[in-house]
Write a structure and sequence with these properties.
The chain is flat and about 35 Å long. The mean pLDDT is 90. The protein is an alpha+beta fold and 74 residues long. The chain is 39% helix and 15% strand. A hairpin with a 6-residue loop joins strand 1 and strand 2.
Length: 74
C-alpha cells in the first residue's frame, strides 16, 4: 500500500475477504465463475487514508453487503 500511495500507479489486488477488499479498494470487481468475467463493479467512495474503525461505519457495512449480494448472484 505504501508503494501505491507513493507512486499512484494502478494496482490489482486479489482477495477472498470482502471486508479487506472494501477497506483497500477504490472499486471492487466481482467475477463470475468460469469463464471468469466481470459481472459487477462496485465503487468504494471512502476517504483515504482508511482507518480500521471504518469497519463499523454504516456505509462500509452497506458496501460489504453489496459485494456479498454480487457474489451470491455470480
Amino acid at each position: 500500500l505504501s508503494l501505491w500511495g507513493r507512486d499512484g500507479q494502478t494496482t490489482i489486488m486479489v482477495t477472498h475477504s470482502i471486508s479487506e477488499a472494501v477497506l483497500l479498494a477504490d472499486r471492487v470487481l466481482v467475477f463470475s465463475r468460469r469463464p471468469g468475467k466481470i459481472i459487477s463493479e462496485i465503487p468504494v467512495m471512502l476517504p483515504r487514508p482508511r482507518r480500521p474503525d471504518l469497519l463499523y461505519d454504516p456505509y462500509f457495512t452497506d458496501l460489504t453487503r453489496q459485494v456479498r449480494h454480487a457474489i451470491d448472484q455470480a
